[in-house]
Amino acid sequence: MSGDDRFMSRITSIGLTPGCSIRVIRNDKNRPMLIYSRDTMIALNRNECKGIEVREVAV
Questions:
Q1: What pLDDT was estimated at residue 13?
Q2: 3-class SS string, the chain
Q3: What's the CA gap between 46 and 35, in Å, rounded?
Q4: Nearest CA-CA partner of 44 in 53, 35, 36
């Protein structure tokens, strides 16, 4: 994850930390991305998503 202090504070306070698992629920163009992580549904705007690097893992 990368971004300014405000972004990093917000994203870690909602539980997104390096190494955590997420599932993309909805990724419609021009809409916030909905993800599911740690028993919580989270909406992220497109600019916030640019600061998050993900890696696909086999289940």
A1: 87
A2: CCCCHHHHHHHHHCCCCCCCCCEEEECCCCCCEEEEECCEEEEECHHHHCCCCCCCCCC
A3: 12
A4: 35
Chain position carrying tokens 């740690």: 38
The ranges of the chain with pLDDT < 70 are 59
Q: Which residues contact 39 (CB under 8 A, 6 or more apart)?
A: none
* Digit-coded pLDDT (tens) for 23-36: 999 999 889 999 99
Q: Which residues pair with 46 in a beta bridge?
A: none
Question: Which tokens sit at 34?
Answer: 């909905």
Q: Specify whether the backbone of 33 is left (phi greater than 0), alpha (psi in -120 to 50) or beta.
A: beta
